Amino acid sequence: MITRVLPLALLTLAALPPVHAAEPWTAQELLAPADLAKRLTGGDKPLMIFIGPAYLYRAKHIAGSLDAGMASKPEGIEGLMKLVKGRAPGGEIILYCGCCPMNVCPNIRPAVKALKEAGFTKVRLLEIPSRLADDWTAKGYPVESAR
């Protein structure tokens, strides 16, 4: 019986999304899409940086945001650091990806970690539970295209 149950249990565990013991952000550093959209439509222009795949940025991205490249790759982190170079360490920086659900996104953790290690203290992460298309674009929040 044990020999039949063990493979099933292992398959079940393998199908679960990865668990990140300690996320590099706090709950207070998460920013709800509705809150950011309200700020943008109210005229606020915070520094927003997209840290996902270039094809997604070209298709549709949050209006006014900059593209750093994929933060899961060294050149993406390099692009991110170029975008924040010379900025005050206490200034707000809003990061977002939206390529996939946050719990499995390969880009958000390295980006948040890199900025914090560089001394930035007001790093915010846009909370996108599923995808940018679902959690931002489909709700009619401000987008633009780079095509």
Describe the structure.
The protein is of the alpha/beta class. It has a single domain (22-144), classed as Rhodanese-like domain (Oxidized Rhodanese, domain 1, 3-Layer(aba) Sandwich). 37% of the residues lie in helices and 14% in strands. The protein contains 6 helices and 7 strands; from the N terminus they run H-E-H-E-H-E-E-H-E-H-E-H-E. It has helices at residues 2-15, 33-41, 54-59, 74-84, 108-117, 132-135; strands at residues 30-31, 47-50, 61-62, 66-67, 93-96, 123-126, 143-144. Strands 1-6-5-2-4 form a 5-stranded parallel beta sheet. Helix 5 links the parallel strand 5 and strand 6 (123-126). The model is unreliable at 9-19 (pLDDT under 50).
Number of helices, counting only DSSP H or I runs of 4 residues or more: 6
Q: Which range best describes the helical content: under 10%, 10-25%, 25-40%, 40-55%, 55-70% or over 70%?
A: 25-40%
CATH fold assignment: Oxidized Rhodanese, domain 1
Which stretches of 5+ consecutive residues score pLDDT under 50? 9-19
Number of strands: 7
The gross shape turns out to be globular
What portion of residues belong to β-strands? Answer: 5-15%
Biggest sheet: strand arrangement: 1-6-5-2-4
| Mean of residue pLDDT values | 89
CATH homologous superfamily identity: Rhodanese-like domain
CATH hierarchy class name: Alpha Beta
Secondary structure category: alpha/beta
Radius of gyration over all CA atoms, rounded: 17 Å
Largest sheet: 5 strands, parallel
The end-to-end distance, rounded to whole angstroms, is 58 Å
